[in-house]
Structure formats: C-alpha cells, structure tokens
User: Fold these one by one.
Assistant:
Number 1:
Amino acid sequence: MDVIALSVWDLGIAASLVCILSLLSLLLSLGLEWKILLFSCRMTAQLLFIGMVLRFLFGSGSLPLVLLLATVMLLAAGREVLARQNLRLKGFTGYAIGTGAMFVSSFSISLLALLVIIGVDPWYTPQYAIPLLGMLLGNTMTGISLALDRLTDQFQKERGIVEQRLLLGQTWQEASSDIRKNCMRTGMIPVINSMAAAGLVSLPGMMTGQILGGTPPVEAVKYQILIIFLIAAGTGFGVISAIWMSGYYLFDKRHRLCLERLSGTGIREK
Amino acid sequence: MEQPSLSISPLQNNCSRLRVEELRFLSNGPYTFTLEEGECVGLSGKSGIGKTQLLRAVTDIIPHSGQLFLDGTPAATFSAPLWRCRVTMVPAESFWWYDTVGDHFAAGFESQSIKKTISAVGFEEDVFKWRISRLSTGEKQRLALVRSLCNTPSVLLLDEPCSSLDAYHTTLIENFIQHYVQQKNASVLWVSHDSQQLKRVAVRELCLEKGGLVERREKHF
C-alpha cells in the first residue's frame, strides 16, 4: 500500500490557511502576524532539510552518520532545555545537567528498544533509530525543562525556608526534599496525563502517521503502546536524574545554598 | 546528638567555648573574638555593617575564610549540619514550611521538658496544634527560638531576638535565654540595636566595624 504523495499545491492550500490566520492576527492587532509567517517558513525549511538528511541517511545507513545526527539532536535539545528556564543553572554545568539527563534516559532507552525489544538488524538502522530517539528526546526535553524551570524558580522564591532548615541542622537533602519532590512531580505529570488521554481524546501522532502510511491499525497501536511506555520511563528517569544532579550543583560541600550559581533576571529572553 | 557536657575535661581546659580567628567573609573582616562558657556577649554596630552576615559566617551558611573552634575543636572536623546544631543561629525573620506549629518540631515535642519550655516563652500546650497562618510575627519569633533550642546548641547566635516583641514578651525572652545559658552552660552572641537591652543581658559588648571589632566591657551584670 502506497501513501498518496502530496504535491506542492496540496501544501500550498494548507499554507494559505496560515496566511489567513496571519491576516486575522493583523486585523485583531494580536501582534503575531510576523511571528506566524516567520516560524511557518522556519518550520518548513527545518523539516525539508531534515527530510533530505534522512533520505541521505537511510540511503547510506552508516553507523557514524547515525551517531552524528543523534549527537546533534541531543545537543540541540540541551540548548532548548536551557532556553526554557527563566533562571538558569550557570555555566557549562547548567548545560551539562540537562543534556546529561537526556543522554542517560533517552539514549539508553533507545538502545534498549533497538537491541532488545524491536531487535532490528543492524541495531542502528536509521529508519528505526532516528525517529525513536527523536520522540524520546522531544518528550524528555519537555519534562526536564519543566522540572528544572520549576526547581530554579522554587529555590529562588523559597530561599528563606531552605536556609532556615539548613540553620536548624538539616542536611541539604532534607532541607530541599520538598522542593525536589515537587519538581519531579511537575516534570512527570504531563506524560502521566497523556497516558490517560491517549486513544480517548488524542490519537498519538506516531500511530496516526503509521496508519496513514498503510500499517494495519492494531500493529500501529502496538508500536504506539511501546513508544508511550518508553517515553514515560525515559521522561521519569530523565527528570529524576536532572533534579538529583542540580541538587548537587546548587549546594556546596558545607551544605550551603549557592544561589549565585543561578543566572537570569526572571525575564524570559525569548 | 551529643549533649553539651557541664564538666570540663582536662583536654578542654583553657579552651574557649567558641573561638573565632581571622574570620573574613564578603569584603568584611578580619574578625577575631572568643565566647567563654556561659557567657552572653552583645554585638552592636551600624545598620548594614554586616552583623547578620557575621552570624551567618559563624554558623557556616555563607562562605568565609578563617578558623572557627568549638571547645577547641576546629569547625572543619564537624559536618556542616552538625556544626549548625552546635552553633545555632536564630535569624530575625523566621520561616515555616508545614501547616501546623507541631510539624516543625522533631518527634517528641510532647515531652515534659518542651512543654515547660513552651510555657516559659508564654504559650499554652495547644500551640503545637496551631496553624502557621494564624501566628503573629511576634509569636513566630518566640516559637522559632524554641525550635532552634531543640538541638540543645552550645552556642546561640541571636539576630535581634526581640525585634517583633512587646515589652512584656521581651522580658520573658530575655529571662528565658538567660535561664538556658545557665542551665546548659551555653554561650550567646546577641545582636541588638537596643543598647539598653545589651546592658541588661550581656557581660560585654562587641561593636562591629568593617575591618574589625571594638570591645566595650560593662561593669555590671
């Protein structure tokens, strides 16, 4: 079964809807018209580019190229995590914490899925490896950036409480336990909620795509279930390790809260 | 938790309760001073000169250089939480994070001794069931002091402990602290803007300046 190929005109019709939206934004003075147009163009260019990259990659199927793309994806996700925080963990360590947490969760889980669960041969077959990693990275990125944004925000706001608890002789682990638990929950709740809605409210994108591509629905559903399990576990592990690592970063050996290791004015840059 | 011992072992002879040597933090210092056993010392100085920061450096919650000794033992040999249990700072503004007062006290706040303590600072026993949102600033201040004493510290660093209290409760707290000092042979560093209060409670007074401490000794106590 073949997919019906989309022509330029087909995409053009969909794009004209966005142009109408942009016009509406102008009329309602929402101030979004240029953003809508610019980001639409940017999205189109990015996706066309990745489409060509993937076509080339699928054709060559070489391990170094797959690893290279995977690394680029990981580094971009790490940058995105940082960009989504109002108050950032300073310096290279701040970048490394988010990126490291995603590396640990997304990469290891993708490997497990490729080697053990799906068992594709060779394990780095790009048709499987890249989309799988992409979905895991995208979701862990959302979870980790939510959790870290809340963590830095809470330490800033509840500094008095944390220091009071330290003054009473609590260890940094005790003094920050409530905040850290809270942030782990914040990071994990979206993915847990999405499990509740899957199939009832939303038809997950990957499954929809496979069905459009001609895969029998039940096969597509099985893949989707696998992916959701992997995403839930990956996000959870990623969030827990990111929070755990930033705890070590924000307190020093003498159990002092080091807020100077946070930078940012509280104003979102983007 | 180790209890402060009243007997002086031969090793600890000639050792001050707390010795601070060449303490520097931020751009302040160096400060060198000692607190003897059972001694209450006042600390005064202009607003913004760094009195609170000095207490924070002594309790080791901000980075500093210099040496601190408790009964002759260097601070570095204590874990930071243990040091803060022995050399406890009570900040001017107290913070509370659970719903009720009792939640903030370690298990065992039902014991007789703490009931006696709580009445000494002017509360009934049912205060442990009170909600934090119901407390006034002054009530919080008195309760925070009791909370800090739960670890039976040997050195108390008090930052304006009566700043939110009326005259009646100020006297109550002054007496309460003096009683604790006598009972546990503890030492106190007492920050206050009220020179009359420091004359009442302290044997001597240290005046904090950017580069050092000036000592004023009071005749009476």
Number 2:
Amino acid sequence: MARELESAGIPVAHICTMINVSKSMGGNRLVPSRSVLHPTGDPDLTLSEEFKLRQKIVSNALQAIQTEIKEPTVFE
Amino acid sequence: MSDIKPFRVVHYLNQFYAGKGGEAFANTSPYKIDGSVGPGRLLEQTSKGKLKIAGTVVCGDNYFVENSSAIKQIIELIKSYQPEAFIAGPAFLAGRYGEACVEICCAVKERLDIPVITGLAPEHPAVDRYRKDLPILRTGTTGADMKNSIPRMGEILFKLLQGIKLSSSEQNLIYKRGLKKNAILEKNAARRAVAMLITKHRGENWQSELPMPKNDLVTPAPAIKEKSFTLALITDGGLILKGNPERMPSGRSDRYCKINIDSWEKLTPEKVEVNHFGYDNRYVLADPNRLVPLDIIKTLEKRGDIRLHPVIYSTAGAATAIENAASFGRGIASELKKAGVQAVILTST
C-alpha cells in the first residue's frame, strides 16, 4: 500500500516493526514502531508515559513526511 | 537395517508449530527441544530413516522480529546439536515466521556451512528477496499443505547432503535462483540477435534471452512543504467498527474499509475493535490508539498543525497477497487525491 501511495506522489510515513521488510517492498519513509502488538503504544508504561511515546512516534512520522529524501530512510 | 546412518538435522519452528501456543505466546524467547516436534515428526517418518531430527529450536514470531539478538541466540542453540543440515518451517504465507525462517537459514549457511532449506508460498514477500541465496520450496498458503511440503523438503535436503542432482520436477519445486547454466546452442549469439531483431521489426512475438530483474524501488514522493497540510490515517492492523458491520475478513484480505472518525476525539473500545488473525489483539483492543494514534493526531489538529481526513482506511494485512495490497494502495491513493489529502501515516502490525 505504501509503495502505491508514494508512487502516486503522496508521501507515506510507514510506522512498522519490520523496517527491512518495508524497505525491500518499496517503503520509503520508515518509522520504527514500538511492537507488532502495539505499534503506537506500550501497555507496560504508565498512561502518561505511553502518551509521550505515542507523541514521539507521531512526531517522527510527521518529520518523515516533511523531509525530502532520495532513498529509503529511517526516521527515529 | 538401513545401509546409511541418518543425517543429523536441526529443525526451526515458531511457537505455533512447536505446540507452545498461538499469538498469545508469540513473545516466547528462543529455546530448544531434543528430538522432533510436530512437523519434524512427519519429516522423519517420511524420510524413511534418512534424516534424524537431533533437536528442534523454537522462537516466538514477535520475539524474533522485535529482538535483534534473537538470531544469535537461535544460532547458538542450533550449534549445540552439531547438525549436518538445517530445515526451517515451512512457513507457508506466515509473514513474521517466514522472515525468521529465511534469515535463520542464511545465518546457518554462513556460520555453519551446512545445507539448509525452508518453504514459503509464492505470495510471501521474502521469496523474491531470498530465492537467490537459499533453496526455498514452493508451498501452499496454509498448514494444510504440510503433508505435501515436508516430505519434499526432506527429500531435497537429503539430496543436497549427498550432492545428488535434483530431478527436474524437484528443481521446479524450488524457486528459481537465477543461477546461470551453460548450454550449447546451434546458432551463435550474432545470428540469434539478428533473428530477434527481425522478429521484433516485423511486430511478431519476440523474447529476450536476458530477462531484466524487476526493480522494486519506488521514487520517493516529494516532501510536504506547507506548514499545515491534510493528512490521512491508514492501517493494515485490522481495525473495524464495533461488531464488524462491514464483515471485514481477518486476513487474506480482498478489500479495505473506511471508518469515519470525524466526530471522535480518539479511538475507544466502545466504537472500534480489531479483526486480524495475524497477531495477539488484546493490547490494541484495550486501547485502539496503540494501533492508530488518533488521540495524538486530533490534538495536533486542534492546534492547527494539520487537517485530518475524516476517514481511517483499514484492512487486515495477514496473509494478504501483495497484488491485493497494491490494489488497495491504488484505490486509496485515488480517493485521497480526489479529497485533496497530501500525506499519509500508515501503521502496520
């Protein structure tokens, strides 16, 4: 999905765990997630810590969308 | 009594095929079991005394993809059995399990220098990336194919161990590795090239002798320069409306759905749930913002940083064919373009 959207000219921040898989499938703007089970959260943290973690991941994603790149790039 | 001593093989399985449990046990760290387990027993039986599973090494699917040290631990466990050959899976169309199988096979080949084999369905994304490096058996998409795949893997592994040439039907069961084979043709290259050119000039069917590899890289889309822009959220984690009114499948998806989030402040378990057979859903069910970070995005929207597209696009990525996923991508791209959406955050499990 990410590659088709990027091909259509829409920048995609792909938040995922298997960064290398995304990269090899044509993902360009890669943002490491917390876990396969909870990409943008972590049940082991307190609510406020978890919220901060999610803010950080989203901010990485927004950074990715707003950064000019030439090749697949990891934002973390 | 058989005239040959069976070869010592180590078998790699995920937590599911090792009988440990399903997604709830996917975080299990690597461990070993002496002898064969589950599919390994079938391998031994069908090999008729040619292969003996000295030990089975097991790791949870999530543990493997989330811990970079997993592979090292697994290799140590494999080494402890001093195997003469290694078999992983087969993993069919299972995403994380298949990745583990190919990566471990590569590491075993490199570190122990023994024959290895694994098995994957043609749609598995790892096939194209590893077919050149490893013998990967072509399997069906689900465990129902185990009874066919395992004996074939055993037979091929045995031949690799003995240095026996594979039959042409066996060669066809292994994904093409792109190796060159010398052959003598009647006409020399110059004659063939001219003949090809003439065929092409006449507008007839012609075929290159050198198929070009498919380039999977995608030119990155230009970055967003505006301070405030329109953003859409997409997930392949199987987010659905409570009660699944659209009857979305939990995997092998043939479509995506749209969830209207215009009036919501965040995702709540009262409004949405998850239908996806590929991971343990409980943490996302408890707080769906762990899958799609709507709570944060809404805060940013209130601050005026972004404008949010009113729907989340969702599908269940488990065991979904690449071509289907590509068609969802094209479908969503055309909807987003019409709606003036400029960028996407896509979350994957």
Number 3:
Amino acid sequence: MASSETAPAAGQRTRGLASFLRSQMRNIAPFLTLIFLSAFFAVASPSFATIDNLGNILTQVSVTGVIAVGLTFVILCAEIDLSIASIANVTGIAVAYFTLQESYVNIPNIPLPGVAAILLALLLCAALGLVNALGLTVIGIPSFIMTLAMMQIAAGISALLVRGQIAYKVPSLITTLGSGSIGGIPWIVIVAAIMLLAGHLVLTYTRFGRYVYMVGGNREAAEYSGLNVKLILGAVMIISAVCSGIGGMLGVAHFGSAQQNEFDTYLLDSIAAVVVGGTSLFGGRGGIGNTIVGLFVLGVLNNGLDHVNIDSFLKILIRGLILLAALIINVYAQRLREKAAE
Amino acid sequence: MPEGRPILELQGITKSFGGVEALRGVDFALHPGEIHGLVGENGAGKSTLMKIIAGVHTEFSGRFLIDGQERHFRSARDAHAAGIAMVHQELSVAPDLTVAENVFLGNQPTNALGLVQWRRMAREAGEQLARFGIDVDPMSRLGDLPIGLQQLIEIARVLFSGARIVILDEPTSALSPPEVERLFATLRRLREEGTAIVFISHFIEDILRVSDTVTVFRNGRKVAETASAATTKGALIEAMIGRGGEALEHSYTDDLMLPRPSDSQVVLKVDQLSLARSLKDVSFEARAGEVLGIYGFMGCGQQELSRILFGKLKPDAGTLVVEGAPKTFASTAAARRAGVALVPESRRAMLFHQEPVYKNISISILDRISSLLLKPAQERDIAQRQVEQLQIRPPVVGLDLGMLSGGNQQKVALAKWLTYPPKLLVLCEPTRGMDVGAKNDVINIVRDLRARGLAIIVLSTEPETVLSLADRILVLKRGTLVREFKNEPVSKDRLLEAA
C-alpha cells in the first residue's frame, strides 16, 4: 500500500530485511491493525464476517472516504484542515437550499434546476476553500487557526441558510448517488471508490502530486528548488474543501435530510482515517493507499463494536485509545525512517 | 604582557571530533584585567577551545585550572557557576520578551511570594543598559529593536552578569561603528574592574585596538602569542595563514593574477541594493562566462544577498536587471523562470533526504520534461546522465539521498540545475566541508559551466574558495562592497587585508 514507490536499489537490498521493515513501518502497522481487528470481530461475532456486513462497512465509510481524499493532500503537505466537516455541512445544506422543498419545510429558499443547484453548491465550497488558501498563503495564518475560523464561518452560513429547520429534498442526481444503488452496489460506494482512485492517480502520476510530496517532505528545499510553494499549498486547501463539499452533498442524500451540525463527527473521523492509515503528520509520507487502510480500520472498528455486546458508551473511549495508539505509531515510524535514512 | 597568577590556565589541551584533531596540545592562560584577542581562520580551533572553557565540550585531554585549582566541568552550568560566561556568535535572545526580561533572563528579581517585581526589573535593566550607553525603553519588545542593538543587549547581559571570565565570539560582526565604540568602552571599563575577557574576531583591526594580548591559532595549534602593541595586522595574517609547506592544499599565500575583465554580455545588473541592516547600496554586474567571487566574513550580508538574487528575500531598495529586463521576483519560482539558480550553503535546505536521488535531481526541471503526467523513465535517464557526468558515488539514482556522503550530496545539489543550465548560477560556500578530491571535482564543474557561458557568482567566507574559482572578486564588509579585485594580483593576505 506504499504510495511512493520504493526504489529497488542495490544499497537498499544490502541494508537487510530488518531495516527495510523499519522504514516501511508506517505502511505495515496499519495493515496489521486492520487484520487483527477483523480477525477479532470475526471470532467474537458470527454476524460480523458476512458479505452483507462488508457492504454495510463500505457504505458506512463512504462519506468519510470522500472527505478524506482531500484531507490526505493537506496532511501530505504538513498542513491541517479543521473546516472539512463544516464545509461538508454547508455544501449539503446549500444544495438543498437551491432545491424546491415540500410546502411544510419553512425555509425561505431559492429553488433552481438541479444542475444549477449542484454547481452553486460546488462553487460555494470551492470559494470557502479559496478563503482558506488565501489566509494560509497570502496572509500567512497557520492552517490550524485559519481553518478553525473557517469551521465557524461555514457553520454560521449553514445556520443562516436553514434557520434551525430541516430540508429534505436535494437534486435527483444527488439523491441517486447518495442513496441509490446499481446491481446491488450502492452508488455512494462507487463514488467514494472513484474519488479515492482519482486522488491516488493524481498523487502518484502527476507533476502536481510530486510537488505535494516534495513540499511536504521539505518545504524549504522545495522553495530553494524554485517551486511555487504557496500555489501548491493553496491548491491543496481548495481540493480539500471541494472534496468535503462533495462528501457533504452525498451525505445529505444518504441521511435523507439537511440540517445544522449533521457532520460534526466527520471531522475527527476523517483526520483519524488519514493518520491511522499511516500518512505522516509531518508531511511527505503516506498517500491514498494509507487512507484506504485507515478508513477500513475505522469502519471495522465502528461496525464491529456494534456486533459485539459492549457498553455503547465504552465504544467512544475505545475509539479514542485506538487513535492514540495510531498516533504513537505515526510518530515512531517517522523517527525510525529518519534513522534508516541516515 | 600581564604578569601574576592567571585566573584561568589550560595546559596541553587536545580535542578530537571523530578522529580529526581540532586542538593539538594547546596551552592558554588568561589573567584578571586582561583583554585577550584570539585570531585564526575558520576551523583553526578558536571556537573549540572557547567551548571547552565554557563547559560546552566536556570531553578532552589536558589540564584545566581555575585560580590554580584543577577543575573539570560537566556542563555549561558548571562553567557558569565558576564565573565563566560566553556570548555566542549566533544571537541567542528571546525576541518576544521585553528588553528587561532578556537582561534578567533566568534571574528575575522576585518578591517574597515568588512573583516577578516588574518595576524593579525594568528600573535595574534600564540602569545597566544606560551604563553601556544604550538608551531604550526596558519594557519594549526586544525583537522590535534593530539586530545590532539586540546583540549589544545580549552582550550587556553577559557582561553585567557578574562573570569573572567573559568570552565574546565575533561580537562586532553585526554592529555599526558607533556601536563598536560603545562596546569597546564598556570592555575597557570592565577590564579596570578586573574582569578577564576573551575576544574572538575576524576583524583584526578591532582586536588590535581593544586587546592587550593576541593569540593566533592555525590548524588546531597555537602558533603565536604576543602583546597587541608589539604586532601588526600583516604579521598576524601571516601567522594565521602560515608560510612554509605545512598545508597539503594550494594555500593561495602567493599572488595570483586575475584575468582581464570580460566584456561579454551583462547577465545580471544589481543597482543600489539595500536590506535593513544587512546590505547597503550594493551595486555590481555579473557577466556571461565569468565567475564573480564575493568574499567577506560571516554575517557580512552574503547570505542575504544570495537570497535576494533568488527571490527568497525582498530588498528594501534597489533594482535587479536580468538580461536587460528589470525584475522584482515575487517568489523563488519566478526567479527560476527568469533563469536564476541558487545553491545555498546548507545542503539540508535544498535537498530531500528521504527521496531518491533522481527525484532530487529532477524536481527543478519537472515542468520542462512533463506537462500533466510525470515521466519517471525520462527523469531517471536525465539523473543517470548527471550522476555519471559529475561522478556521483554510488551511481544509483534510485538510492535515497540521505545514504550519500556530504560531498556527493553537494554534487546532487549542483546537478539539479545542470540539465537545463540557468543564465545565472549563484553558489554559496560551494566547497565547504569537502575533502580535497570533492573540492577539485566541484572546481572543475564550475569551470566547465563557465566555459558554457553561464554567469556564476560564488559567495564564500573562505578565501581559498573564492581564490580557486573567481575571475573577479568583490569584498563585502558589513553590508557594503569595499573593494573590487580585477586584472591584478590577489592573494589570501590581500583579501583578508581588504575585509
């Protein structure tokens, strides 16, 4: 699942298996976690390891998956985006706002044709991403603070649009992609898979993808190599916002409603998926492959805990502990790799 | 020379780093009420000796006596407790704290409850600084003051900390002439009070003016100790560089004839460039097929100049003209597109240690070889050619850069720019820390690039580097160009003399 190919060099072979494994710790550890968790729940509950349940898990992680694509770009650049869930929420609400609602929904909205509603919603999330980008690169606000402000701004726009009400209707295309299925496979899973694949292809095979890794790996060196670092950082912030927006629209269709605070849990889940998968918080290491493993770890954990007889309040604590363990591995993997490189 | 019992005495000090001897059997004595100047080239051993005295280096052999008693410091804290204080070359202040907090750092006056007495601290800091001739509001933020003033405040803090032995490493490099005068007046007053002061500097005039005794280091040995009044700048430079066949390398002690200035096309014209306190009215031209050397001491403004040429820093005033077109670079990317390339003095600053060699070589030319999609096979081919041409070892482009030796990494840093050569190549300290073989390789590469018509600027604090490469040499001193050598004999002595 390594996203940056490991070069089959003579020197590396001579370093021996042990140091190779050490340098690949970040990719191996999440995979072992996934296998371990799956095996555990398969033994603990007969209803876990079934085809039906696999479908459930895939559906459950789809919205997180779409949001996590963009976040992977951001974290690879050693930045963070805390506004993803709020932007997802406001985009989902916006697409409903521009759709004709039933008469009992008391929102002073502006009904438009479906295509226009979708385009306007996409424009909105891209614009919010642009504000993040400008704040980070032109003004120089750290992304942690900038996106914290954006989290509030997007939540504020959501509140103004729905005014405490709930909207139900979204354009039919979004309804199909969010809650329909084809040949037994939910469209939302297909969309998530396509987005993840596209993210992987961009990161691995395009010039822009290389720049993302290089800026994340050593920002100073990227600048001294004559790369336009600000442009690249700005671009990843916009990509993140647009992915969040798409995830928000699909999520609204999937849940069947658009309302305030609907996506709050997705901030932590998306960050957890990227980091648990082994993408380095220090930038430059990891990729979509890691994010997919991270998504499955979270999906299996959330789903599996429902299949075993466990205090539902304890589930929250367990998730927190697993996240902590992943963070520890993340930081150690970075150190081991630095040692292996020296 | 001062008589009486020394406050500090070192006997036969030897110190090595990884098998390389930095100090070989050095004796050194310091007396109360003495200002002792220390001179020598980079790497001669001055700083190593001072770090031993200040408790930074604790592993060494030889005897270490204070007031005639043998001591062995285990840390800088021990040295501090024994009354030894050092001002390091790099500024180590807390820019976000107030001037008063910096003066009393770690030693703030507190009341019975352990709370800081701000008013008393401000008053006392103000009084101390006033004795030094510094008139600033003690409650202003230190980082808002000019660099020279910050440096003076740091020196003042150490001088008034009650230390009996004070070590100053290059204290004047960031100071303006009136500030240097204030520092000297204070040093002289402390000398009257019996403090022993060690003063390290590249500025030999400064040393001669303020010190009582001068010690000269060369290659880890003490080669001369003399009363300052009884020596001259020329004699000291000669002692620093050494005549005779001691050095293995070409020592550039004899005159070298610079060629007639080239009249080829002007690639870069710099006019009246100024940057805060770092650079003042710097103007020069760089021509195609010419290597322009810029020599000066650490902190003379070279680093800032190179960053301005590559769009990393914006000058306060002045213009850059590249091939006749005025430029204000908004980013390093703009500078690269205009045909300017920079190799900074730190390899870490321009290389990706966790990425393979070929990605390091291709990063600056990706937009030339691929549009949307990468072409890894072509990247590897290009990298392979560079690796063979520059004889980078091992010649494996897939190897992570971090596995290469320092000299080979430096070659990779050059290789980045060579596939599509720039119009202007700016090299900072291109041979620093290299062995003789790697140095020669780099010299040959630069000569080859000159033959291909590039304009090359070499900035260095090592006279040998500039002398081995340059066709024309500018000397930068405290941010101002003070001398141009062209079409005339030049040697290490003459360069040092000018700086």
